[in-house]
Amino acid sequence: xxxxxxxxxxxxxxxxxxxxxxxxxxxxxxxxxxxxxxxxxxxxxxxxxxxxxxxxxxxxxxxxxxxxxxxxxxxxxxxxxxxxxxxxxxxxxxxxxxxxxxxxxxxxxxxxxxxxxxxxxxxxxxxxxxxxxxxxxxxxxxxxxxxxxxxxxxxxxxxxxxxxxxxxxxxxxxxxxxxxxxxxxxxxxxxxxxxxxxxxxxxxxxxxxxxxxxxxxxxxxxxxxxxxxxxxxxxxxxxxxxxxxxxxxxxxxxxxxxxxxxxxxxxxxxxxxxxxxxxxxxxxxxxxxxxxxxxxxxxxxxxxxxxxxxxxxxx
Amino acid sequence: xxxxxxxxxxxxxxxxxxxxxxxxxxxxxxxxxxxxxxxxxxxxxxxxxxxxxxxxxxxxxxxxxxxxxxxxxxxxxxxxxxxxxxxxxxxxxxxxxxxxxxxxxxxxxxxxxxxxxxxxxxxxxxxxxxxxxxxxxxxxxxxxxxxxxxxxxxxxxxxxxxxxxxxxxxxxxxxxxxxxxxxxxxxxxxxxxxxxxxxxxxxxxxxxxxxxxxxxxxxxxxxxxxxxxxxxxxxxxxxxxxxxxxxxxxxxxxxxxxxxxxxxxxxxxxxxxxxxxxxxxxxxxxxxxxxxxxxxxxxxxxxxxxxxxxxxxx
Amino acid sequence: xxxxxxxxxxxxxxxxxxxxxxxxxxxxxxxxxxxxxxxxxxxxxxxxxxxxxxxxxxxxxxxxxxxxxxxxxxxxxxxxxxxxxxxxxxxxxxxxxxxxxxxxxxxxxxxxxxxxxxxxxxxxxxxxxxxxxxxxxxxxxxxxxxxxxxxxxxxxxxxxxxxxxxxxxxxxxxxxxxxxxxxxxxxxxxxxxxxxxxxxxxxxxxxxxxxxxxxxxxxxxxxxxxxxxxxxxxxxxxxxxxxxxxxxxxxxxxxxxxxxxxxxxxxxxxxxxxxxxxxxxxxxxxxxxxxxxxxxxxxxxx
Lengths: 315, 314, 302
Known about the structure:
The complex is a heterotrimer of chains A (315), B (314) and C (302). Helices cover 31% and strands 22% of the residues of chain A. With 315 residues, chain A is of the alpha/beta class. Chain A has one domain (2-84, 162-310): P-loop containing nucleotide triphosphate hydrolases (Rossmann fold, 3-Layer(aba) Sandwich), CATH 3.40.50.300. The radius of gyration of chain B is 24 Å and the shape is globular.
């Protein structure tokens, strides 16, 4: 349904161009939930913004194709925004207009995309509120009277209102209390499954990936490190970085009690100083000479790592 | 509170600065003349009584007589207030309207040729002292083109308690240049503020969400962004209204506009203390009123403040 | 080894912003011309002996019909060479502006430091006073102070002291922005480890304030000083234009414009134009530079 080919996003800095996203390619299939995972600054949110066409200076899409239902959209995302693709942002406290009631905001979005009369739009808006678990009486309430979790429910209602076929959820639960996170994720998952809407779920939390997604793409320094079915990637990671991410995730079970959490050594390089070769080799426990010299392509349609080339699946 | 303090300052000025007796009678007056005048002006009473008297009479609009011309100050000010208010209101409307419009335009079309042109000329506008703008306008439109009058209010119609220049052709014509002079500064300020706020607001997540929901630019700019910039813009515009009063002094001097500002500058020039202190009180009063209006507007615009207000009243 | 300043973002951006460079150099040229007015000026406009009334009203770059002298910018009614008059006027304007900013800075920084560092009642009193003063436009405050000061001075001193009075009035009317900013930054710096450790070492308050906090809050002070300087020059010009500034025997740019306006209707436009242009250039260059500086040093706007 959504296909991305060789996407480059450049950041212009002091007159030169720095690659923030480098040769990114992946697909999203109808009705699936694709996880996009990586450290802060890996380019997860940027990928989301690029798909929905909200990349702004000093960033720009410099190469590549984004194809949605056989139409190229990277040049005129306007026509697709909302109606076909919508987005949910990280912090619900700031993603609703504070001066307008949630009802007004819902009705406005609905009427922009669906030819509804005022009454119909209000009816539809109220049914949506009901679906996301907010009483209809709160239709005329202002955002500041809601808690963070409730506001994210409103945002979900807004994002689903125009009946899009893809929702990009950019860390939708990071800013929320832990107890609320699961509820919101479940709600999003349930509603999208009912509507057969695909989700790109951006997160840095491997736990969320494991519980929610069908497939997962791991980003590192603006490059795709690994992509595949969630079950396979989590259980049989092919890229050393994925492996590190999984091992660095805290677990709560008897064995791990009091044991020290694994850390990937070093930090992700600054965009200005991405090394030649594999961007990860300076932190990689198993890098070989080739890693320093040539950047690995995606091998076996799975991971961008030269180790796969040498010793198949040995990781 | 503010008003009381302002009153205190203006009282101190009134009482201690300059010697009213000297000013009225000159250096060569006899002792007897001086004593008589001191009595007449109430300068012999204890100081707190004098302050109290001052407050009481201020509330009643009694500011004593101007040293120069010996007319009651209140009468002087009241007769000149309409001229200043008409000028201030016209210029404020001009400044705020064009300021917001241009501010939004330049924020939306950031980097376009016209925006850059407007912005750089606005910077010149800010740098140009008000009086220079006035003088240049007179030069172009009065001296060279001979289109508009360069001084005075033109023909005014007396409505009994108010004199207005709005109703005659020459009155309106006379209003144009001073209003532009006075309004230009506010316009540039409001414009730059509107632009900065607009750019700030357009970066907010709710605007990004609105974009990602596929709302049109028009919906986003006017229904989502504009209301959110109004609060800071109104605050500054309100505070600026204070400067309008100050800059009115300059504008009135340049155009010989018979308003309160001209009265004040003459008072400073001739050290006419009662007029100065009365003017100060008037300005303080205007500020209090303006602040009140600004606060009320906030509550109208922002539901969050509305709720806070209700809570604190309970 | 390059100097660290040449490597900084500030300098990089400066080179890349033609307006900043241009305004900086225009300002520099104006200042140099004002400083060396004695050398540059072709005439000495304030020596009555050298003046020739026959030279009066000579248009710029034209030979005078009686004496045949050519003046770059023409002459005024008394035959004073406008170019020289402007140079000397600039000097007065710049001097008044500089001194006023300096005064405002000293008062504002001191009060701001004290308010921020000491806190409590002192803070409340200072900032409350600042709040009230700031509601009144500085030009109005300056006028009031000027009027009051004139009232207090004995009449025979009024004339001589007017430049000092002017500096004090403008300085006193502009201290609030300094105080507010310094107080804000002081509150932040106060909580940092280095101040806390200085306190533990038993340094006195003034020592901590001047030696430790002050150097860390200088950059916003610098920006405000630049902007205030432009403002002070404009305020001075305005007051002089209104006739409540410097005496006419020592005309500043504002006074010159005031004189020029009188001759507008009789056609001697140059008497107005050249001082006005100079003032515009001066104010514009400082403002543009200050604007750029503010953008650079204020990360919020970046």
